[in-house]
Amino acid sequence: MTRRVAVTGIGVISALGSARPAFFEALESGISGIRPMTLVPEGSLRFPNAAEVPAYDPANYFEERDAGFLDRFAQFALIAAREAVGDAGISFDPSLAENTAIVTGSCVGGKTTEDAGFRSLYEQKNSRFPPLMIPKVMANAGASRISLEYGITGPVYTVSTACSSANHAIGQAFWLVRNGSAEVAIAGGSEAPFSLGLLKSWEALRVISPNTCRPFSRDRQGLILGEGAAMLVLEPMDRARARGTRIWGELAGFGMSSDAHHITQPSANGAARAMRAALADAGVAPEAVGYINAHGTGTPANDPTEVEAIRSVFGPHAEKLMVSSTKSMHGHTLGAAGALEAAATLMALHEGIIPPTANFSEPDPACDLDVVPNTARRARAECALSNSFAFGGLNAVLAFRSVI
């Protein structure tokens, strides 16, 4: 059994706001959520800026006891899932709950909790850890808490493939729904990487920009880390239409590949294979694609490699593509990146508004595509790709089709 898959719910919490409408309004306006970091002591890192969720207070979403069970990243996962489920208008009776899947992505899991625990052990010499340390640190904490919230008893699991985690999660959930293994799926990713120990590790890599993220610009200096979550509700197209609910778009294909090349350096060949696989899975010709939400990290190595891969896949049609990186606004949210970008891509298709590559200042001959610089564009696209390419050489690409 092969079924078309509709996206009927979207939930987002990010540096651009605490819900989906604020997220897309910022994307449409080209507003960046990159600002001075507040979650670690000022001056403790060589890079001062990040894309933090602004003024986040767990008390606005959770009872104190419930918040205490969840690391920040898992809180974000549940907040986004609540919005997505509400947006889809779905109620989980026992039968549907048994036939619903939850697949989430997270690169690092509960690092905030882990970092605080190790600081307590090594710096403050406390020999006893809180009893909830392990449940809060585990990468599947968000997926498990969503399951508990809605009584979902179908397949529930978490994927961790660095910066491709969310795309891998969404793609696998899509296949579950398409082949009939699940009737509904909640899928996406969440991340909260702003703990000093982890940030010091990123500092050592020397890939973080000292100011802001400028994907595809000649003067780009690196990525900017972000946090947040996005979740999608997936269901068969026929079911969605019978319910009369809004359909954001069709998730039509999923492709993945491994570079087998280098642990941190990207490969155009690997990225191209994943894009071709997504198009083939969707049954979409390259010429039908009008927009690509690029991985677009703003690092010197990634951006021209991604452009090379796009040209390899699309040939002369690459000149007609609109290609933008929304990481320029919501930051690089690691395991949540693909989910935020899937949400941005779906809303772009649905609203006919292509989000820009913000902070763009100077064209780079090595990135010579239409990168929709600084200003959103009113344009309709029949199909779109959303790219995620991870450390470890793991690539995951989602293909979406407009449903008007």
**Count of strand segments:** 14
Judged by helices, strands and strand pairing, the structural class is alpha/beta
Helix content: 25-40%
Number of helices: 14
- Beta content comes to 15-25%
The total tally of domains equals 2
What do the pLDDT scores average to?
A: 97
User: What would you say the CATH architecture of the largest domain is?
Assistant: 3-Layer(aba) Sandwich
The low-confidence parts are: none
Task: Give an overview of the whole structure.
It contains 14 helices and 14 strands. 59% of the residues are buried. The strands form three sheets. The protein has a ten-stranded mixed β-sheet with strand order 5-4-6-7-1-8-14-13-9-10, with helices on both faces. Strands 2-3 form a two-stranded antiparallel ribbon. The chain has a two-stranded antiparallel sheet with strand order 11-12. It has helices at residues 20-29, 64-68, 72-88, 94-98, 111-122, 133-137, 141-150, 165-178, 196-205, 237-243, 268-282, 302-314, 327-330, 337-351, and strands spanning 5-13, 35-36, 49-50, 100-105, 156-159, 184-191, 228-236, 249-258, 289-293, 322-324, 353-354, 377-378, 383-390, 394-401. The mean pLDDT is 97. It is an alpha/beta fold. Helices cover 35% and strands 19% of the residues. The chain has two domains: 5-243, Peroxisomal Thiolase, Chain A, domain 1 (3-Layer(aba) Sandwich); 251-401, Thiolase/Chalcone synthase (Peroxisomal Thiolase, Chain A, domain 1, 3-Layer(aba) Sandwich). α3 (72-88) crosses α7 (141-150), α8 packs across α14 and α11 crosses α12 (302-314).
